[in-house]
Amino acid sequence: MNSSSRFSSDELLEILSLSHNATAIHSTMALTVQTANDAMLAIWGKDRSVIGLPLEEALPELKGQPFIGMMQAVLNTGITHEDVNTPADLVVNGKLQTFYFDFSYRAIKNAQGETYCLLHTATDVTDRYLKHQALLSAQKTEAALAREQSLNEELATTIEELSATNKELKDTQQKLEQLNTELEDRVARRTMALSKSEANFRNMILQAPVAIGLFKGYDMVLDMINDKFLQLWGRDKSVLGKRLEDALPELRDQPFIKIMQGVYATDVPYFGNEAKVMLERNGRMEEGFYNFINHPFKDAEGNTTGIIVVATDVTEQVQARKELEKAEEKTRFALEAANVGTWFLDVETREFVVSARLKEQFGYYADEEVTYEMAAAAIPDEYKEKVMKAVEKAITTGRDYVMEHPVIGHHDQKKRWVRAYGKLYPDDSGKLSHFSGLIIDITEQKQDEMRKNDFIGMVSHELKTPLTSLSAYAQMLYNKARNNDDGFTLGALEKVNTQVKKMSTMINGFLNVSRLESGRIFLNKHDFALDELVAEMIDDARLTIASHNINFTHSEPLMLNADRDKIGSVISNLLSNAVKYSPRGKNIQVECRLINNMAQISVKDEGMGVKPQDIEKIFDRYYRVESSHTQTVSGFGIGLYLCAEIVHRHDGKIGVESQKAEGSTFYFTLPVN
Ligand code: ADP
């Protein structure tokens, strides 16, 4: 296109003005409005009168808005400035209103490229913009609503949670309150209990069955003391609050206050055992014995503030014990003086304790330890078994133990005779577990007895010789009288013979006792038939006994290995006793049987019988039952003793069964071949 065909500016403006797009052209830096079409004027709210005016004047309301600056920058730089939805405040219809525009400021340049004016186009997008904004805001509101909704929901749950938490909190608070009240209650109760327990403590002290006192400070000031203590002192309550040495001046020269002060200073308790205390009671000094404890008394912080003393009066016990000790001393003295030894044996542990005297009796030194075995060792072998058996029997049966036996002194080898007495005593549980007793030295007595035995033996022996010749002469005279048919002499000599026989039985008895005692009796054993011997003895007895009926029953022949003469004497002894101790005309039943592999011979009479209390003793030497009947029967109480000795030496047993006034059955057993 050439320049002639180019439109002039005005023509161009004319064309522009027809455009519906709002257009204006500004020139110079004052942005003078060269032209503005109707659309632009409508936007501005102005009429054509603004054409030719600088923009600031044409639209004074632009002052303070960025547009004039922007346009000037485009004029200066030549760089187009465009934007959309830009708000501008314009006075339209006399009212300042905000409108929104899509606009552009474009620099129009000449052929030299110099900017000579600015083309301003704008579209009013207020409607669109506002609608869009309304939509946006509606969307926003919706989103906000949705957010709010969810927020609300969240809030609701949060509220719910909160209210639950709140409830919990409330509950907890309630519980706490309850706990608090309980705690307060408890504290109150504790406090009460504490004061109660303190009161109890005081009461306990005051009512305690033992003497209790509390002494405060180093000076031992009486702080609390019970009646028991006051009684023990023989004082009244006026001592309270006083120092101990002022309350009981008599204690000043006794060690007790110092001991208490020692406990106070060192904190170490002190235990007094059977302490002797001198106290002034009723104007007199009296001796008493006390067990006591001095214990440090501490306050709540653990500081020792005093001493607690607990005391028990043991005066009576101590005195009783002293009495007992005195009595024991006396007994010991008496025992020593009487040459009596004592022993103690624990049945279970076999612990053996003996006195010094007993040790001496057994030939040990008084200071040497003597065991049960050592004591037993001093007993000669021939007695040992018997003694041990007797001890065990006493222990198992609980019966008293009495035994005579010799001992051979361990160191001095001296023979002594002793008599031992033993008894079982119960322990605390009532079990018979202590076996103790005495041992008396009977050596002298025994020697006397032996001398007596020897004497009896000697006398018996001496008496036997004249008796034998007496018997021989009587026999000769008997023969002579028979030849002469001298009836009277014959009768008299028969009586002499009977008496001589009686006498010789007696003398033989004594002789046997003396032999037995001195251990000079020996068994002369042979094999023989027991039933035959019994029959013989019965026949012999029948020769002299016409007063009783003697019957003999026996089952089978019984062979023995024994001393025939001595067993014969046992049978004859039992027969003669049956005659002696039962009335005339009564029966005597003799039996010979085998029982449990032992031959048993029994002699049953219908006489006076033996009382139970005598049964044990009639086999003792010289023992005779005392009764009006036995007084009329001669005897020395040696027959059964000899029988028992003979039977025992044959390892047999002897005994009696008797019903009062129904007679007795004496029996003995002997081992068969
Ligand atoms: P003795 O007959 O010489 O007195 P014994 O030793 O034979 O001596 O007897 C001892 C005691 O036993 C007698 O004194 C008598 O009391 C009692 N005795 C013995 N045998 C019988 C009996 N068969 N019946 C009743 N008592 C008897």
UniProtKB/TrEMBL annotation:
NCBIfam families for this protein: sensory_box
UniProt keyword RNA-binding, yes or no: no
Coiled coil, from the record: 145-189
Enzyme nomenclature, EC number: 2.7.13.3
Listed GO biological process terms: osmosensory signaling via phosphorelay pathway
Name under which the protein is recorded: histidine kinase
Subcellular location: Membrane
Catalysed reactions, semicolon-separated: ATP + protein L-histidine = ADP + protein N-phospho-L-histidine
Annotated keywords: ATP-binding, Coiled coil, Kinase, Membrane, Nucleotide-binding, Phosphoprotein, Transferase, Transmembrane, Transmembrane helix, Two-component regulatory system
Organism domain of life: Bacteria
Single Gene Ontology MF annotation: protein kinase activator activity
InterPro entries: BphY/WalK/GraS-like, HATPase_C_sf, HATPase_dom, His_kinase_dom, HisK_dim/P_dom, HisK_dim/P_sf, PAC, PAS
Domain PAC: 271-326, 401-454
Classification lineage: Bacteria, Pseudomonadati, Bacteroidota, Sphingobacteriia, Sphingobacteriales
Keyword Transferase carried by entry: yes
Domain PAS intervals: 327-398
Domain Histidine kinase: 458-673
Membrane topology, as annotated: Multi-pass membrane protein
Gene Ontology cellular-component annotations: membrane
